[in-house]
């Protein structure tokens, strides 16, 4: 039977030591030693994935390894930061070798692709719970922040938000779809693609940015609140995959506006930067779509007195939509 330390060494530490390039000191000591390139700042983010809350018990462990790191790399992408390394802490009910082999393979496949080294962590027995802290670097004046949006900015989104939530709906039996579409949705849910290349390409082009992890309606509001502005969104402009477009319109809107787990980027940029945004997207190989405008607040107008989103359809007609993002303490 695997012990704690043989588990760590066999499935994680030995692989990490073989690929250490950026950390001055990686796994094997009380602390790792890591420093950003000269003139850059460390970007640090932590995310936790809990069985039954963030993933289903029967999820493919290879896909889970991928997603465990992908959700953290997505945070770096939203800041325009380049990956450096990460730590992994987890509790595991039983040290099953087949599960660990598949999980670590999915984890390291993504880590190697982005040059992000495992530099430390911890493990213990308990309910399945995965926690990653990721480290990246970004030039001091180039970080994409949530508090930088300005009235008149365009609002953009990458990819096709909503597919992941559609996948969860299929798994839950909330709606039915074709087998091929279900496979598209499930891949979006279980294997999100962190938009690192796009985040790096948007340095000096975008103003404010974040990743859409808890639904566009909730996440965009974070930019609005931090920047003290409002937003006007054209719901019909939101990009939808061919698979999502085959679901009923109400389901499409629910998934693309209030669904979570997409890990696409939502960002703002001046209208004068439209060509630069398109060039950045083309360079990164990621489609982007302009979906709205940042608006100023007006204390004299109750509808615009505080940060919020005005939803409209493609004709400009207002839509009375009650939407909110995923809440970990109030989720169904």
TrEMBL record:
<dbReference type="InterPro" id="IPR036921">
    <property type="entry name" value="PurM-like_N_sf"/>
</dbReference>
<comment type="function">
    <text>Catalyzes the ATP-dependent phosphorylation of thiamine-monophosphate (TMP) to form thiamine-pyrophosphate (TPP), the active form of vitamin B1.</text>
</comment>
<dbReference type="GO" id="GO:0009030">
    <property type="term" value="F:thiamine-phosphate kinase activity"/>
</dbReference>
<dbReference type="Pfam" id="PF02769">
    <property type="entry name" value="AIRS_C"/>
</dbReference>
<dbReference type="InterPro" id="IPR016188">
    <property type="entry name" value="PurM-like_N"/>
</dbReference>
<feature type="binding site">
    <location>
        <position position="30"/>
    </location>
    <ligand>
        <name>Mg(2+) 4</name>
    </ligand>
</feature>
<feature type="binding site">
    <location>
        <position position="214"/>
    </location>
    <ligand>
        <name>Mg(2+) 5</name>
    </ligand>
</feature>
<feature type="binding site">
    <location>
        <begin position="121"/>
        <end position="122"/>
    </location>
    <ligand>
        <name>ATP</name>
    </ligand>
</feature>
<feature type="binding site">
    <location>
        <position position="30"/>
    </location>
    <ligand>
        <name>Mg(2+) 3</name>
    </ligand>
</feature>
<keyword id="KW-0067">ATP-binding</keyword>
<dbReference type="InterPro" id="IPR006283">
    <property type="entry name" value="ThiL-like"/>
</dbReference>
<feature type="binding site">
    <location>
        <position position="261"/>
    </location>
    <ligand>
        <name>substrate</name>
    </ligand>
</feature>
<dbReference type="GO" id="GO:0009229">
    <property type="term" value="P:thiamine diphosphate biosynthetic process"/>
</dbReference>
<dbReference type="GO" id="GO:0009228">
    <property type="term" value="P:thiamine biosynthetic process"/>
</dbReference>
<keyword id="KW-0418">Kinase</keyword>
<dbReference type="Pfam" id="PF00586">
    <property type="entry name" value="AIRS"/>
</dbReference>
<dbReference type="GO" id="GO:0005524">
    <property type="term" value="F:ATP binding"/>
</dbReference>
<feature type="binding site">
    <location>
        <position position="122"/>
    </location>
    <ligand>
        <name>Mg(2+) 1</name>
    </ligand>
</feature>
<feature type="binding site">
    <location>
        <position position="46"/>
    </location>
    <ligand>
        <name>Mg(2+) 1</name>
    </ligand>
</feature>
<feature type="binding site">
    <location>
        <position position="75"/>
    </location>
    <ligand>
        <name>Mg(2+) 3</name>
    </ligand>
</feature>
<feature type="binding site">
    <location>
        <position position="47"/>
    </location>
    <ligand>
        <name>Mg(2+) 2</name>
    </ligand>
</feature>
<comment type="similarity">
    <text>Belongs to the thiamine-monophosphate kinase family.</text>
</comment>
<keyword id="KW-0784">Thiamine biosynthesis</keyword>
<feature type="binding site">
    <location>
        <position position="47"/>
    </location>
    <ligand>
        <name>Mg(2+) 1</name>
    </ligand>
</feature>
<dbReference type="InterPro" id="IPR010918">
    <property type="entry name" value="PurM-like_C_dom"/>
</dbReference>
<feature type="binding site">
    <location>
        <position position="146"/>
    </location>
    <ligand>
        <name>ATP</name>
    </ligand>
</feature>
<comment type="pathway">
    <text>Cofactor biosynthesis; thiamine diphosphate biosynthesis; thiamine diphosphate from thiamine phosphate: step 1/1.</text>
</comment>
<keyword id="KW-0460">Magnesium</keyword>
<feature type="binding site">
    <location>
        <position position="54"/>
    </location>
    <ligand>
        <name>substrate</name>
    </ligand>
</feature>
<protein>
    <recommendedName>
        <fullName>Thiamine-monophosphate kinase</fullName>
        <ecNumber>2.7.4.16</ecNumber>
    </recommendedName>
</protein>
<feature type="binding site">
    <location>
        <position position="75"/>
    </location>
    <ligand>
        <name>Mg(2+) 4</name>
    </ligand>
</feature>
<feature type="binding site">
    <location>
        <position position="211"/>
    </location>
    <ligand>
        <name>Mg(2+) 3</name>
    </ligand>
</feature>
<dbReference type="InterPro" id="IPR036676">
    <property type="entry name" value="PurM-like_C_sf"/>
</dbReference>
<feature type="domain" description="PurM-like N-terminal">
    <location>
        <begin position="28"/>
        <end position="138"/>
    </location>
</feature>
<feature type="binding site">
    <location>
        <position position="213"/>
    </location>
    <ligand>
        <name>ATP</name>
    </ligand>
</feature>
<feature type="domain" description="PurM-like C-terminal">
    <location>
        <begin position="150"/>
        <end position="296"/>
    </location>
</feature>
<feature type="binding site">
    <location>
        <position position="45"/>
    </location>
    <ligand>
        <name>Mg(2+) 4</name>
    </ligand>
</feature>
<keyword id="KW-0808">Transferase</keyword>
<feature type="binding site">
    <location>
        <position position="75"/>
    </location>
    <ligand>
        <name>Mg(2+) 2</name>
    </ligand>
</feature>
<dbReference type="GO" id="GO:0000287">
    <property type="term" value="F:magnesium ion binding"/>
</dbReference>
<feature type="binding site">
    <location>
        <position position="326"/>
    </location>
    <ligand>
        <name>substrate</name>
    </ligand>
</feature>
<keyword id="KW-0479">Metal-binding</keyword>
